[in-house]
Structures are given as C-alpha cells and as structure tokens.
Design brief:
The complex is a heterodimer. By secondary structure, chain A is of the alpha+beta class. Helix content of chain A is about 25%, strand content about 35%. Chain A has 9 helices and 20 strands. Chain A has helices at about 5-10, 55-60, 105-115, 120-130, 150-160, 180-195, 205-210, 230-235, 240-245, and strands at about 15-20, 30-40, 45, 70-75, 75-80, 90, 165-170, 200-205, 215-220, 225-230, 250-260, 265-270, 275-280, 290-295, 300, 310-320, 325-330, 335-340, 355-360, 365-370. Chain A is elongated, with a radius of gyration of 25 Å. Chain B is mostly helical. Chain B is about 70% helix and about 0% strand. Chain B contains 19 helices and 2 strands. Chain B has helices spanning about 1-45, 45-50, 55-60, 70-85, 90-100, 105-115, 120-130, 135-145, 150-155, 180-210, 210-225, 230-240, 245-255, 270-295, 295-305, 310-340, 340-345, 355-365, 370-395, and strands spanning about 160, 170. Chain B is elongated. Classes of the chains: A alpha+beta, B mainly alpha. At the A-B interface, strand 6 and helix 3 of A face helix 15 and helix 16 of B. The structure holds adenosine-5'-triphosphate and magnesium ion (MG). Adenosine-5'-triphosphate (ATP) binds near residues 30, 48, 50 and 51 of chain A.
Chain lengths: ~375, ~400
C-alpha cells in the first residue's frame, strides 16, 4: 500500500491492529506481529483452524486479554488503557453467555440499565431489537426455555441493543445444526446490512466466511496468511494454505522449469510431465512450487489436446452429490485427485477403473511458491 | 430357549437392585433403626407398666382424691418386692421421681423393709416405713408413670407438663429451660451461618478466581482444619481466646484494650460463635466454590461488554448465579450448627450451651433417654423443615459439595 492511498482511506479505517503480539506464557507467541485494518461498516471475518489465534485477537480488541506488544486503535485512538466496559463494543460469545437468571427482556435491557436509560426508552429499544431478530413475543422467557437458534438471536439482539459501532462475534453459530446455521448466516448478513455496524466475526467454517464477509482474513499460527474478498481468496489464493483451506483444491508438487513473461511458468511435476500454470509470485527456474487446481475447473477430455494441461487418469470412485459428481482419480502420480463435474444430462458416464484423460486450462491452475510453508 | 431369554432379562433389572442392597442394609442399620428407636423411646416407656401391672390395674378405678384402698397397698407391696428381686425397681423409682421429684428413695427403702414385715396391715406398715405413701401426689405420679404411651417427654421438651385437671400447663418458672435453649440454638445457628457466609464468600470467590495451581493450595488450606481432630481445633480456640490467651495478649499489646479489662472471649456466647464459625467454615466454602467454579468467565465478560463496571457485573450477574451455592452452604452450616455439640460444650460455658448439650446431658448424666429422644425428634423436625424450604426454594438437586 502506498502512503497516499493510506491517507486517502484514513477516514475509513475504524479498527487497526499495528504490530500486535500476544503471548500468554511469555515464550510462545499466539499472535505474531499482526497488522490489520478494519474499515468502518465492514464485515471482516477472521478465518482459520483451531488454535490459530482468532479468539485471542477478538479478546484483545474487546479488552479481556492484554496486548503483549503493539497497539490496537479504534478511530485512531489506542485502546490499551480503556477498560472493557467503556469500549462500547457489542459482543456475541460462542456459548451465547445469556444471563440464565434473567428473562429475555431483562437480558436485553441490561446494557440499557447500566447506561441509566429511562424505562420507556429501554422498553422501546428492547422491542426494536427483538423485532430486528424476529423474536417478538418471547421477551418473558428465560434463556433455558429457548431453542438454540432463539438463544442465538437473543445474544445477537443483546449485542446490538445499545447501538454499538463495533460488534464482535466469536463463532456464534458453532453450536447450531447445519440448516439453522445457514438460516442464521443470512440473518446476520441482513442485520449487518440494515445497521451498517463494523463487524469482526470469527469462524473456522470457510463456507460461513464466504457467505457473510466483505473481506476474510485467513489466520494460521497467529499470522494472517492472506486478507482479501471471498472471491479473491477463492480465485487467487496467494498461499497453498489458503488455497486448500478455502474450498477444495488439488495440489501437485513440482519444480519450475521455465518462466514465460513472468506470468506463465512451466512446472515439471514428474518424469515427462509438465504443467503450464499461472505464477502468483515471481519464480525462477529450479524453484520448488505447489500447483493448485480447483476440482471444478478440471474436465474430462473428449479429444487429444483439448486442454493445455492434459493427462491420463484412472477412475477410482464416483460419488453422486446431487448437483454435481465428485470423481476421484489417480493422475500425475497423485492419488485421490478430485474432479467435480456438473450433473448435466449426458455428462458421459464414467465407471471406476475406466482409463480417461483429464485436463485444465493454464489460467485455472496456480503455481504457489513454497517459502515457509509447512506441510 | 424361552426360559433362557427370560433369565437373561430378569437379572438386568435385578442386578442394580442387588448391588444397592448392601447400601440399603447399611442405611437401615446405621440410620433408620437407631432413628426409629429414638422416636419410639420419646413416646413409649413400658418400664413402670411392666414392673407394677396389677397396681396400675387397680389404680385405674381409683378416684384420685383420697388415698387408695389397702388392696392397692397390698398389691404394690408384693410387686415392689418382686421388682426389687429382678432389679427393675430403680427404673420405676427414676421414672416416678421425674414426675414428682424427691420420691426416688421411697421405693427401694420400702421394698427393702417390706421383706421383713410380717404385719397383715400393709397399708399402715408402709406408711410407717415412709410417710410419703400418705401423699396422694405420689400415687398420682405412679399412675402417670405407668402409662406406656406418653406425651410427657414432648411436653417437657417444650417446657410444658400435664396439669392436674387433665389439661396442659407450663412448668414452674425455675424449670423452664428448653424453649430458651431452642431460641438460643436457632439464634446462634443463624449468626454462625451469617458469619460463615460473610467470611466464606470472599474466600470461595478468591479460590474460584485464581489459577488452578493456586486454587489447589488454597483449598488445602481450607481443608486442613477438616483433617485435624475437632477436639484439637476447639481446644486450640480455648488457648487462643482465654483471658491470658494469644488474642487478648495481642489486643493488649497493640493497645486496643487495657490489661485490666481483657475481653471475655471464651466460656460464653462469643466463644461459641467464634469457634463454631471456624469449625463450620469449610461447609460454606466448599459448596460456594463448587458453584462458582462452574460459572463460566464469559458471563462477567458479557456483562463488561454490555457496559457494566465490575461491581455492577458482580452484583447483577455473578452473585445471582452463585445463589445455589449460597443457599446450599447456608443450609449445611445452619443444619450442622443446630445439632452442634462438642464446640459449645468446650468453649461455651453455661451461657454458650445449645440444645444439643441438653440432649447429651439427658443421655449421659440424667439418663432420661425419653426426654433426650423427644428433644432430638423436635430438632430433627426442625432440620426437615429447613430441608423442605430449601428444596422448594432452590431445589435439593442443586446442592453441590465439590
Ligand atoms: N487463556 C489462555 N492461556 C494460555 N493459552 C491460551 C489461552 N487462550 C488461548 N490460548 C492458546 O492460544 C492459542 C490460540 O488460541 P485461540 O483461542 O485464540 O484460538 P482460536 O483461533 O480461537 O481457536 P478455536 O477455533 O479453537 O476457537 C492456542 O494455542 C491456545 O492454546
Ligand atoms: Mg476461538
């Protein structure tokens, strides 16, 4: 990012992590030199496997964990010394943390009471919040008498009722079943669009991250691997970790033979086998790389040289998935290479054991450099 | 085939019951039977009826305003002699004495002398041996002691007694002790409960808030008194609290009290309160700690994220959630203090005695087991009442001890 671009956007940056480090025990860093800007009104998701430090980041932002070094600013103001209850950040916890001894109404009016609002003001705000999450009529129930989805909605309503500018959610849908989770995802999206708050959302479900977010920050071991819009992450992952964490990916290991125009490279992935791929970073001949190909971009070749990359394959298994077929083949010296083909009429029946040819276009496969990747 | 299947199914239900049998037997032997015996003892006393059956038969028709006829004297004379032989006469004497004090010696003395009397006019002879036989009160006492089933112990345990006219009256002023003791026991138990709560809540909160390794250390400190003998703990309070004890020495040394007005901390109510609070504190801390540990830190965080400062968060969120622990701890401490005995006996002096000390007295010293049993039953009913109030209010399944 150039400096003038940064100043141009400065008014837009709402939350900013600068060189933030967190260590619980003083030796292992759980969050390593994190830099992250969240724009006003943005829906940013922290996505990553378990233990990658997502919750820790949220807790530092909310004020429940100290920052080992670095600064977090909100509206340009460092927040280290602001006590959690003065930060005005709404938060939805993974287990909801609804107060079990209070009714839904009391739970929702809790933040309003501690702010000293009048009873009538409280009442109208509670009603509005309940309306927002479509829970009118349940205000006198205790949390334990609500279903999981309803508790979730109450938790969201409670985090919004005092109209915070920033709302944090830590895997809020983790405890719900799949259907309800999807329903709630759209609900959260709708609420975010309606209120325009800045949202920082934590999940380890990439599907959820794709559905909800303006941008996704992919975490791994306390670092951000890539931060981009869902489309970019999917189409242009810059790291192997991202490419296989977001959606399915077939990954081939190889060595760069030749680089064309700095964009296309030829990668040798075995004796007499070369792949033409898009090189993501600058590569030099002789460098080891990963080549990543999305399963849905692979096709079954009907003629010789139909694709720029075309190889022999043996079908292992075919799984009918409804809208598509998932075909597992051996090819390029790799077992369990996955192909997804749409379930169209006359997709050409293949059977396990068939010898076929599979292929993909150069632009659909990306060569990712190895650098510090571990596997 | 059919028979093996039914055999296979039966044990599946019988095995758990069978495994529980030793426990049932244990509870029966150690709890139900002694308790049952106690309840029976408090209202059923056949000793006099067994020793003097014929006399009591005759006394049933007696009009109780004049001395009984010589028939009665003759009958009781022979029954006294035979009960002297089978040594039941002491028990008769004790029981009659409880109703009319000062009549214990009549029986043994009369029986002993009667063996040597040849006289046919036994009535005159007996009155000659002891003129208390002329007292109608004594005969009334014998008749009353002869009832197998009696509410006398219960009446007595609430400072009442049967009146002449068949009604109920308060015992004479100098004998009224039990009601005061019940009130004092309840009052002391409440005070101990409140003190335990005030001291125990912050301790439990501290243990629940610190890291696991610290929690272990603190719990051991709380439990160490548990592992030392109750007698040792109580006696050490004597050493600490007595007039020339450590506490007074320190107070004098820092100048809070002057040397000639040292505080009386022991052999009175203060001593009972201090020592009982200390002894019962773990029973408050443990259930509180168990409940507090199960309160997820997320609740306090949620309260803070919603804008509540730590005090508001504590009062509105944490404390209400620790209430099951509070009520469990209070219930335990209150019930235990109701029946507490060793500590008040050792450090309480006369002013610090509780109802249990009276039970002990009647069991060990006065040997009036019926009265001891009646007081125990009243205490037991009190405990059950507390238990049911607790169950209604909080639910007994919420009781957690660790
Ligand atoms: N209170 C704590 N004390 C010590 N270590 C902790 C603490 N909380 C988290 N950690 C460690 O920090 C690392 C990151 O934890 P964090 O909870 O931020 O991960 P996460 O990305 O939220 O994972 P998940 O998806 O499982 O919730 C983990 O290795 C975890 O063991
Ligand atoms: Mg987490």
């Amino acid at each position: 990012m150039t400096t003038d671009k940064a100043t141009e956007q400065a008014s837009d940056v709402h939350i900013s992590f600068d060189n933030v480090v967190k260590s619980y025990d003083g030796s292992t860093q759980v969050v390593k030199d994190l830099n992250l800007d969240v724009n006003r009104g943005e829906f940013l998701t922290l996505l990553g496997p378990s233990g990658s430090g997502k919750t820790t980041c949220l807790m530092m932002l909310a004020g429940f964990e100290s920052i080992t070094s670095g600064t977090i600013t909100i509206d340009g103001r460092a927040i280290q010394d602001i006590l959690p209850h003065k930060r005005g950040i709404g938060m939805v916890f993974q287990n909801y943390a609804l107060f079990p001894h209070l009714t839904v109404r009391k739970n929702l009016s809790f933040p309003l009471e501690v702010r000293g609002m009048s009873a009538s003001e409280r009442n109208s705000r509670v009603m509005r919040a309940l309306e927002l999450v479509q829970l009118e009529g349940l205000e006198n129930r205790k949390p334990r008498n609500l279903s999981g989805g309803q508790q979730q909605r109450v938790a969201i309503a409670r985090a919004l009722v005092f109209e915070p500018e920033i709302v944090l959610m830590d895997e809020p849908l983790g405890a719900l079943d799949r259907r309800l989770r999807e329903e709630m995802q759209y609900e959260i999206r709708r609420i975010h669009q309606q209120l325009g708050v800045t949202m920082v959302y934590v999940t380890h479900d990439q599907q959820e991250a794709m559905v909800l977010s303006d941008r996704v920050a992919v975490f791994r071991d306390g670092r951000i691997e890539q931060i981009a819009t869902p489309e970019t992450l999917y189409e242009e992952p810059s790291r192997v970790f991202v490419s296989s964490f977001i959606g399915d990916n077939n990954v081939l290991y190889g060595e760069v033979r030749e680089v064309q125009d700095n964009d296309i490279c030829h990668v040798s992935i075995g004796p007499d086998r070369n792949v033409q791929a898009l090189s993501v970073e600058e590569t030099k001949p002789g460098e080891p790389v990963w080549v990543a190909i999305r399963p849905e971009r692979v096709g079954i070749a009907k003629t010789e040289n139909q694709y720029s990359n075309q190889f022999d394959a043996i079908v292992n298994d075919i799984v009918f998935m409804g809208d598509h077929l998932r075909i597992n083949v051996d090819t390029c010296g790799v077992r369990n290479f996955i192909i997804k083909i749409p379930n169209l009429v006359g997709h050409g029946a293949v059977l396990p054991g068939d010898e076929i040819q599979v292929g993909w276009a150069t632009l659909d496969c990306r060569a990712l450099s190895m650098d510090s990747e571990k596997t | 085939m059919a028979s093996t299947r039914s055999q296979n199914q039966e044990p599946s239900r019988l095995v758990p019951i069978g495994l529980a049998l030793p426990l049932v037997a244990f509870v029966l032997v150690t709890f139900v039977i002694p308790l049952g015996t106690m309840v029976v003892q408090s209202a059923y006393d056949p000793q006099v009826a067994q020793a003097l059956p014929k006399t009591l038969d005759l006394l049933r028709d007696w009009n109780d305003s004049a001395l009984p006829s010589s028939d009665v004297f003759e009958t009781i004379a022979s029954e006294l002699i035979s009960s002297r032989e089978d040594r039941s006469i002491g028990k008769v004497a004790t029981r009659v004495n409880r109703i009319k004090s000062g009549s214990r010696s009549v029986f043994a003395k009369t029986a002993r002398r009667l063996e040597r009397v040849e006289d046919t006019d036994l009535k005159t002879a007996m009155i000659e041996i002891d003129d208390r036989w002329e007292d109608i009160e004594l005969w009334r006492a014998i008749r009353s002691a002869g009832q197998k089933f009696t509410a006398r112990h219960y009446l007595r345990s609430v400072d009442l007694e049967p009146a002449q006219d068949g009604g109920i009256q308060q015992v004479s002023e100098d004998q009224r002790i039990y009601n005061t003791l019940y009130f004092r026991t309840v009052y002391v138990s409440l005070a101990v409960t409140v003190l335990c709560f005030l001291i125990g809540y912050p301790i439990a909160y501290a243990i629940a808030s610190v890291s696991d390794s610290w929690a272990k250390i603190l719990l051991v400190i709380v439990l160490v008194p548990f592992w030392t003998s109750l007698l040792v703990r109580t006696t050490s309070w004597l050493v600490l609290l007595q007039n020339q004890g450590v506490v007074n020495d320190v107070l004098v040394w820092i100048g809070l009290v002057s040397d000639d007005s040292r505080l009386a901390l022991v052999h009175n109510m203060t001593g009972t309160l201090i020592a009982m609070t200390h002894v019962l504190l773990p029973f408050m801390i443990l259930p509180l700690y168990a409940v507090m540990r199960s309160i997820p830190p997320d609740y306090m965080r949620a309260a803070a994220s919603l804008g509540a400062n730590p005090i508001e968060g504590f009062v509105k969120v944490y404390f209400p959630q620790s209430l099951p622990g509070v009520s469990a701890g209070c219930l335990l401490v209150f019930i235990l203090s109701l029946g507490y005995y060793i500590t008040p006996a050792l450090v309480g002096g006369t002013k610090g005695q509780l109802i249990s000390n009276m039970i002990a007295y009647h069991i060990q010293t006065s040997l009036n087991w019926g009265l001891a049993a009646a007081i125990s039953v009243i205490l037991l009913i009190g405990v059950f009442v507390c238990y049911f109030i607790f169950d209604r209010w909080v639910g007994i399944d919420k009781l957690k001890l660790g």
